[in-house]
Write a structure and sequence with these properties.
The chain is mainly alpha-helical. It is built from 38 helices and no strands. The chain has a domain of 105 residues. Helix 2 packs antiparallel against helix 3.
């Protein structure tokens, strides 16, 4: 026997081969020691015979468990399975501690060889016999295999509590954390397991996988390579090495598949290894070979969810979406705790535009995979599409925390903050996004435009600037043109708004209803009522029946028309009046309003109301700059008297209505007086605004 083979057979036992309690039979202890010596000398078959003689002469669960462990170390998986089954049979009459250890060992062996459900049953019996760190760890690993991730983590935490210095408990904790997408925490648990047992290959394999989940491929390769040296008979170690090599450099595909296939050679019945081989084949574009590997995994463990997920994903890669969806839905129903299955279903439904159907599976995926940024972000998208922004905020926040460099997640998170009324937070988040070096994505600027447009009060000019920047990046984005049109309308730039609404319709006809409604509003404010009515009629036919906004625009058209008729009547009446003696005029009253004393300014503000539109600028100036309560209130009342012709004052009046500059919790007398005066001002502003806008 050559040196390398001797080294292979002399490798340490893997994690499932638990260091059982000291055997009550000294004869068995001596036989185990002698068999290990024979193994080290390169005579594994003699070691097997040594333990077989003891087991046959004195049949016991301990003896057959020891034989199974030894046969596994020598690579005799079938023999190990038969001996393990015999150990289970004999364990029914063994002491609880012995039965627990034997069943935990058998559960681990079953996971390496085949069905997760069978391993789970053995582990449950082990825990039932006696709760120990080892039996709980075996149960946690079996729960991970059968995709009971929430239960697995609870069991693993219980195992650690029962034995914080137990390497197998720490390793199982790492597996449960990794299954939940918590890579960094899993890595810490695997490292602790390795410190407690430096020869535990499973801990090194798990650490490699956790490092890979954290995008640390170079470190993952080193750890997986270490695992293959610790246990050259571990197929999982070679599979992990192949996976890590491919992640480090996709050009090293040949090396990656060679390592993974070595894993399949030493552990041909391991479903975990077969899935790893399949995924590497898939990465190389060899879908048929990948499917063959996934099917071999299912032959070993028909319920292995990872293999079933992988098979459906190959259908998706082939573009067989209609065939993939029912298979994915069936899998998700059978494995409700599987975050991967739920994520796959949710992703497929989202791609079809069925967000109402996707929101349920994606919500489950986000909860089952708390460490997956993709799961969180897709759940957020589904919430947005189903008009649930409040639910979208926390999952998008989590996605950003998990993947802070993903500007798409951050952009969507900023938008969700704005949609839930957190505009300042939204603006800050989006400003960070667009400040990213080299950022040239339309979404960040468009979302920032939405934030500024929907603020109270709106920051209209900043919204216009953000939307225009988005248009520079993508001049054919209908969402951007629609947002820009609305912002231009808010800035009273009606002709520009109309042009942008029309461009929106050209880019995306399905927005014709929204755009024509905006055009109708714009013509209404321009007082081009014929065009307003014509465009509103088009919008009515394009929008859903009964849209209340149509009636609102029609009502405002009527009010503007009545206002025009009233202005015309006033003008005709004024022309019919005999010429009045020369008295105060707009300019003289405007001068008094700026330079007179308090009483004369107040009187000037009242008198200016009868001069109509020419007086508006003087009154707006006084409203914005005069500190006298009488002057400001008189100016507001005069603006209301002028009516629709005073529309230029609307922003000032709205600012007064929204503001509360004198709010205080514990008020002094002067503050209380100011509060009272300001409330009078707000009431006057509301009344004036109603007369000006007709609303």
């Amino acid at each position: 026997m050559n040196v390398s083979l001797k080294k292979m057979l002399g490798a340490a036992a893997t994690a499932w081969l638990l260091a059982g309690p000291a055997f009550a039979d000294k004869k068995l202890d001596d036989a185990v020691a002698r068999a290990d010596q024979q193994l080290q000398r390169g005579h594994p078959e003699e070691g097997v015979k040594t333990l077989q003689r003891v087991a046959e002469q004195t049949p016991s669960a301990e003896a057959y468990a020891a034989l199974a462990r030894f046969q596994w170390k020598t690579g005799d998986a079938d023999g190990a399975g038969k001996s393990a089954n015999k150990a289970v049979e004999l364990s029914s009459s063994a002491a609880p501690a012995v039965r627990s250890e034997v069943l935990a060992n058998v559960s681990g062996l079953t996971l390496r060889r085949g069905a997760g459900k069978e391993a789970l049953a053995h582990a449950q019996e082990a825990v039932k016999a006696q709760e120990t760190p080892s039996s709980l760890a075996a149960l946690a690993r079996a729960q991970v295999r059968t995709q009971q991730n929430v239960a697995a983590l609870q069991t693993a935490e219980k195992a650690v509590q029962a034995g914080a210095t137990s390497a197998v408990a720490q390793e199982a904790h790492g597996e449960a954390l990794l299954a939940g997408g918590r890579g960094a925490e899993a890595a810490a648990a695997f490292r602790k397991a390795s410190q407690l047992d430096p020869k535990m290959a499973e801990a090194q394999v798990g650490l490699s996988q956790a490092l890979l989940a954290e995008n640390k491929a170079v470190e993952a390769v080193a750890e997986a390579r270490k695992a293959t040296e610790t246990d050259p008979k571990s197929g999982e170690a070679f599979a992990a090495l192949g996976t890590a090599i491919l992640a480090e450099n996709s050009k090293n595909w040949n090396d990656a598949i060679a390592q993974a296939q070595q894993g399949a050679f030493v552990s041909p019945n391991s479903p975990v290894v077969q899935v790893a081989v399949g995924r590497i084949f898939e990465a190389g574009g060899n879908l048929d070979q990948a499917v063959s590997s996934y099917k071999r995994a299912l032959e070993a463990d028909p319920g292995y969810v990872a293999a079933r997920v992988a098979l459906v994903q190959t259908q998706i890669r082939k573009g067989e979406y209609d065939a993939a969806l029912p298979e994915a839905q069936k899998l998700a129903a059978e494995a409700p705790d599987s975050g991967d299955a739920q994520l796959m279903v949710g992703r497929l439904l989202a791609q079809k535009g069925d967000f109402a159907g996707a929101v349920g599976p994606l919500d489950k995926a986000a909860k089952a995979l708390p460490g997956s940024a993709e799961a969180q972000a897709l759940a957020g998208l589904a919430y947005v599409q189903t008009r649930q922004p409040e639910q979208a905020v926390p999952v998008y926040k989590k996605a950003v925390e998990l993947d802070p460099k993903n500007v798409d997640y951050r952009s969507n998170y900023g938008l969700m903050l704005a949609m839930t009324g957190k505009h300042e937070e939204a603006a800050n988040e989006l400003k960070k996004v667009i400040a990213t070096p080299g950022y040239k994505d339309v979404a960040g600027y468009a979302n920032l435009g939405y934030v500024y447009r929907t603020m109270k009060p709106a920051r209209t000019e900043e919204a216009i600037a953000a939307y225009k920047k988005a248009m520079e990046i993508d001049p054919k984005n209908e969402q951007v043109t629609l947002g820009l049109a609305r912002s231009l309308f808010n800035a009273n730039r009606f002709d520009e708004a109309i042009g942008m609404y029309k461009k929106t319709i050209e880019l995306e006809p399905k927005y014709a209803g929204e755009a024509d409604l905006g055009i109708a509003w714009s013509y209404t404010f321009k007082k081009d009522l014929a065009q307003a009515r014509a465009t509103l009629a088009k919008a009515k036919g394009e929008l859903p029946p009964g849209d209340s906004r149509v009636a609102q625009v029609a009502e405002n058209i009527e009010k503007v028309e009545k206002g025009q008729q009233a202005e015309k009547a006033q003008a005709e009446a004024a022309q019919a009046q005999p010429e009045m003696p020369q008295g105060p005029n707009v300019n003289s009253l405007g001068g008094a309003l700026q330079r007179g004393g308090s009483a004369s300014r107040c009187a000037a503000a009242r008198d200016l109301g009868r001069f109509g539109a020419p007086a508006v600028d003087h009154l707006v100036y006084a409203l914005a700059n005069d500190k006298d309560w009488c002057v400001r209130e008189a100016a507001i009342q005069s603006l209301g008297q002028i009516g629709p012709a005073a529309r230029a004052a609307v922003p000032q009046l709205q600012a007064i209505i929204r503001a509360n500059p004198y709010e205080c919790t514990v008020c002094e007398r002067k503050q209380m007086e100011d509060q009272a005066h300001f409330e009078d001002l707000r009431r006057a502003a509301r009344a004036a605004l109603q007369r000006i806008t007709g609303g």
